[in-house]
Every structure is written in structure tokens, then in C-alpha cells.
Amino acid sequence: MSYEKTNIYQGPSALPSRKLIPPFESLRAFDAIARLGGVRKAAQALYRDHAVVSRHLRALEDWIGCQLIERTPAGAVLTEEGQRYHEQIRQAIDGIADATVDIIKRSQDHSLQLWCMPGFALHWLISHVDEFESKNSDIDLQLRSTHEVPDFSRQEADVDIRMLLESEKPTEDDPAIRCSQIASPPVIAVASPEYLSRSPDIQSPEDMLEHQLLHEEDFDNWRLWFGACDIDCADELIGPRLWDGHMTLAAARRGRGIALSNALVAGEDLAQGRLCEVGAGLGSFPNVNLWTYWFIARSDRWESRAVSYFREWLLKKVQGQLSKEQQ
């Protein structure tokens, strides 16, 4: 069967005959086999079973009425007709891919899917992000407060803001991600004025071992903080476990005990007098740095307008606030 090119379109706005455009899955299967040199390699690249890829190939050969692939002991080899056909459709498939990448990049300049740990999201970001949005009203920001780590390979998020220990810091060994430090604010102990007024005086970190300590899901954070103060916490620490950092802050505001935080997360409470920094101004309290906030993003989105603008704004805003508080 043959078709003359002049008969493919019946006019400038007409669609090509349905018979002349094979199913795209069959074209993708043939293209992958031709590029990679085998059905199994194509199946792996397409995340399909090799039997499925073989069925798509047979369907394409039946559709156009000729053999495209010759199976040999050395593997799949394109027939003469297969070579000619692939040279033509390869350009079309590459063109579709290039056009799709182009439109995705342009649309991504105006969208930002952001995941963030709850403490930072609820106590700092939500109070400041309106500034970014007002300056970039064309960027659609979607913020998710979560402890979960996004799967960048599935494009669950563009950016993840995470607080990590030095031993947990991300590396760029994975080509799928890029990362940048945001800040490492000192870890401070905070309590309400009411709690401190009715509790024994605190003159050193050791004194807090006799106080009600507010923990997250375990005692590790307080152990790390005391360890940084050269205090051995071999004995079991006391105090309720409340799972989240923002819950320990809420309990501290209500006078239930002493929580660990930093100037970013507890900044508003400290400024409004709802919380006080325990040991502020006392030389017996060392400067303790345990965690760093990291800006982690998909490498293919790192230079996009939405991600780069947000990254620059966030770093400038955070560093500016911390610099003011250190003055």
C-alpha cells in the first residue's frame, strides 16, 4: 500500500488520515529498539516488560505492512526499510521532546512546588513568604509543610527545605539534586516568663537537668545540646515527648517547661515576650550549633526563574534577620 504525500492533508487545517499515524506507544517502542539495539534494552529504558515492547513493535509492523526489525543471534537489527523509517520518525520524536521541554521550562518559570519541615514553615516561612509573593505575583507558590522527604525523581517537589545535622547533610553526588546552605542558627533553650518566675533559678546548663524539659519524639535533641555543653546525660532525661518542634514551642508558651529552638523558629515568640531565652547573657551558656537549614532542589529546576528567585530571596531574608539579632 502506498500513499502520496500530497494526499496526507486535505487542506492547511485538516488532520492527517488516522491510518497514517500509528499508535505513539508503538512508535516509542520502535524508536527505543532502534536507538538502543535490542528489545530488552528498550524495555528497560521505557520501564516496560520486554514482551509488551515486542507486541508494540509487531503492531507497528502490522500497521505499516512491512518488517522493520530483523532478529539475529547478535540482537535486533534494523532492516533497510526500518533504517529509512527510523531516520524520519526520529526527527519527529526528537522535535516533540524538544518542544515539550521548552514549554515545560517556560511554565516552570511561573510555578514552585515547595516542601518544608513544619517548624520552619509554620513559625518563620508563613510569616515572611507574602513578601516574596507580592514581589513575584506571577509565580504560583505551592507550600507543603511536612516531615517527609520528596522524591525528586517523581517530581513530587521542586524544592525541599530541611534542617539537618552535619552527619546528615546532603551531597551533590546525586546528579538529580543541587543544594545550598541557608543558615546554621545557634540552638537555644526557651521557656515562658511564667515558668521561669516560678521555677528554680538557672545559672548554668547543668541547672536545667532539674527542670521540666520538653522533647520531640525522643530525647536525642536535648542529649546533643547537653553534649555540646560538655554535660554527660547518662541518666534518663525527664519531660514529655511531644513529637514536633512546634508542639514543644506551644507547650513552652503555656508554661509547661523548657524547649529547644532557634532565633528563626522562636523569633516571633521572643520578640513578643511570650518566650525568653534561658541563660541569655550568661557566660556559662556556650554558643551551640547543631543543625543547618538546607535548600535542596531538583538540578533541572535549579536555574529556573521560580527556584532561583525564591532561593535568592530566602537566603537574603534569613541572613538579614540573623545579622540583626547578632548586633
UniProtKB/TrEMBL annotation:
- GO BP, sorted A to Z: DNA-templated transcription
Highest taxon above the source species: Bacteria
Q: Give start and end of each HTH lysR-type domain.
A: 22-79
**UniProt GO MF annotations:** DNA-binding transcription factor activity; sequence-specific DNA binding
Among Pfam families, the record links this protein to: HTH_1 (PF00126), LysR_substrate (PF03466)
Q: Which Gene3D superfamilies match?
A: Periplasmic binding protein-like II, Winged helix-like DNA-binding domain superfamily/Winged helix DNA-binding domain
The protein's matches in PANTHER family, at most eight in alphabetical order, are given as:
HTH-TYPE TRANSCRIPTIONAL REGULATOR, TRANSCRIPTIONAL REGULATOR-RELATED
| Identification of the protein by name | DNA-binding transcriptional LysR family regulator
Please report the organism this UniProt entry assigns to the protein.
Pseudoteredinibacter isoporae
